[in-house]
C-alpha cells in the first residue's frame, strides 16, 4: 500500500490557451497536513479545484488512494474553496440541514459538528450576522459533516484575527490526530510552517518545491528565493 493518499501525475490545466498548471507531480501522505504556498495567481486554487472535482485537468491525472480520481471520491473529500457556500438568512443549523438533505447525510450529524466547531451556541442567529471567523467555522463544518478522509482548505485563515488563526491551527491539529489528511493553502508563511508536515510551493503554475517541513529553516527566505526565480526547483 502506498504511503500517499493523494498524488498528481504530470497534471496540467489550460484556460483559453493560457497554461495555468504544468507538470504538477504532488504527493500527499496519509494523515498529514500538507501546506501549499504560492503567490496570487500561481495556480494554488486551480489545483485544489481539480482535486475537488470542480475543474477537470487538461493533461495528466489525479490518484486518490492509488486509483484514478473519479466522482465517487467526492464523498471522501471535504472542501472549503473561495469561501463557504452559505445562506445568509439561515441559521448555522439550517445551513447544515440544507447541505445534509442535498447530500443524503443524516440530520443527526449536525449537532456534533456544530459543537466541534464551537458554533452550537449561535441558536437562531442568522449567518449574515456572523463574524468572518464564525462563517469560516461554518464552512469547515460543512466540509467535515460528511466525515471525509481528505480535507481541502483554500486560504481558510483569510480575514481572521490572531485568536481566530490560533483556533484554526488547533482545530486542524485535532483533525489530524483523528486521522484526517489535510491540504491547506495560505499566505501566512509562519502558520504553514507551524502546522504543516510537508510544504509545497507553486510558482508560475509549476510545483517548484515539495519537501518535509523543516521547522528550523527560514521559510520566508526559501519562499522568496523560489518565487523571485533566484533558486531552482528542489523536488524530492
Query: Helix and strand succession?
Result: EEEEHEEEHHHEHEHEEHE
Treating each run of at least 4 consecutive H or I residues as one helix, how many helices?
A: 7
Question: What is the helical fraction, as a range of percent?
Answer: 25-40%
Proportion of strand residues: 25-35%
Please list the strands of the largest sheet in the order they lie side by side: 7-8-9-4-10-11-12
DSSP strand tally: 12
- Biggest pleated-sheet summary: 7 strands, mixed
Distance between the termini: 20 Å
Question: Rough shape?
Answer: globular
Query: What is the average per-residue confidence, as pLDDT, rounded to a whole number?
Result: 91
Task: Give the low-confidence spans.
Answer: 230-236
CA gyration radius, whole angstroms: 18 Å
Structural class: alpha/beta
What is the multimeric organization of the chains shown?
single chain
Model description:
This protein is α/β, with parallel strands linked by helices and 236 residues long. The protein is 31% helix and 27% strand. The protein has helices spanning 44-51, 92-103, 110-116, 132-144, 162-177, 189-195, 219-227, and strands at 4-15, 18-24, 27-29, 33-37, 59-64, 67-68, 77-80, 150-154, 181-185, 198-203, 206-212, 234-235. Strands 7-8-9-4-10-11-12 form a 7-stranded mixed sheet, with helices on both faces. Strands 1, 2, 3, 5 and 6 form a 5-stranded antiparallel sheet that branches. It is globular and about 50 Å long.
